[in-house]
Amino acid sequence: MWLPLPVMLAVLAALWQYGARRLPYLLPPLPAVGRSLTTHFGYYLSGAWVTLGEAAAGLATGFAAAFVLAVLTSELPLVRRAVMPIAVVLNVTPLVAIAPALVVAFGFGPLPKLIITGLICFFPILINTATGLRSVPRPVLQVYRTMDAGRIELLWHLRVPHALPYVFAALRIVFPLSLIGAVVAEMSAAGSTRGLGTAISVASSMNQLPVVYASVLVLAVMGVLLLLAVTLVERRVLRRHDGAPD
C-alpha cells in the first residue's frame, strides 16, 4: 500500500533533517535550502531558463536525427545494419567522460552542450520509433497495399500513426534526460553559462551545500513538470487515433 504524498514528504523531510544533523558536511538543513531558494529565487529562475533552453535545443536535435534515422532503418535494411551498431556504441559510451573532450574540441559555446544533450536523447527515440514503425500488423499492411498505397503513403498514413505510442514512450524517458544532459554539459564547461549545472559546479567548489541542493531541487521540479507536460500531450494526441494503446 502506498503512503499518501503528504506523509511521504514528511517522512523524507524528517530523514533529511536527521541526516543533516549526523552528516552536516553532506546534507545541509532543509531550512537553509529553503532560505537559499527564497532569497535568491531570481538566480535559480534565470538558471532554470538557461538550462531548459539548452535541454530543449539538444532534445530537438536528438529527436530530429533519431526520427529520420528510424524511418531510414525501418525502410532500408542496409541502413539498419550500418546504423544500429554505431547507435549502440554511442549509447554505452559514458558521455560524462567525453563531455570535457567535447568542450576542448568545440570550445565553450553552445555546440558541445547541443551534442551532449542530443546524444543522451538520441538512442531511446531511435529504438522506440524504429520499433513502432516496423510493428504494423501484416494484415493491415496488406489492406493498404491492395489500395495501391505507395511507400510514402504507408509511412505517413499508417506507420507513423502506429508508432506514436512508441514515440511518446521514448519522450517520457528523454524529456527528463535532456535536463541531465544539459547539466552535464554545463558542469563540464563551468562558468561559460549561467545554467543550473554551472551553479552546482561553482557552489560545490565553494562548499555551498544549500545552493547545490536548491539547484538539484529546482531541476527535480523541472523534470516532473516536463514529464507531466509530455504525458498530457500524449493523451490528447493518442485520443485521435482509434485503437491506440493507453
UniProtKB/TrEMBL annotation:
<keyword id="KW-1003">Cell membrane</keyword>
<dbReference type="Pfam" id="PF00528">
    <property type="entry name" value="BPD_transp_1"/>
</dbReference>
<dbReference type="InterPro" id="IPR000515">
    <property type="entry name" value="MetI-like"/>
</dbReference>
<feature type="transmembrane region" description="Helical">
    <location>
        <begin position="46"/>
        <end position="72"/>
    </location>
</feature>
<keyword id="KW-0812">Transmembrane</keyword>
<protein>
    <submittedName>
        <fullName>Putative ABC transporter permease</fullName>
    </submittedName>
</protein>
<comment type="similarity">
    <text>Belongs to the binding-protein-dependent transport system permease family.</text>
</comment>
<dbReference type="GO" id="GO:0055085">
    <property type="term" value="P:transmembrane transport"/>
</dbReference>
<feature type="transmembrane region" description="Helical">
    <location>
        <begin position="163"/>
        <end position="185"/>
    </location>
</feature>
<dbReference type="InterPro" id="IPR035906">
    <property type="entry name" value="MetI-like_sf"/>
</dbReference>
<dbReference type="GO" id="GO:0005886">
    <property type="term" value="C:plasma membrane"/>
</dbReference>
<feature type="transmembrane region" description="Helical">
    <location>
        <begin position="84"/>
        <end position="108"/>
    </location>
</feature>
<feature type="transmembrane region" description="Helical">
    <location>
        <begin position="211"/>
        <end position="233"/>
    </location>
</feature>
<keyword id="KW-1133">Transmembrane helix</keyword>
<keyword id="KW-0813">Transport</keyword>
<feature type="domain" description="ABC transmembrane type-1">
    <location>
        <begin position="48"/>
        <end position="234"/>
    </location>
</feature>
<feature type="transmembrane region" description="Helical">
    <location>
        <begin position="114"/>
        <end position="133"/>
    </location>
</feature>
<keyword id="KW-0472">Membrane</keyword>
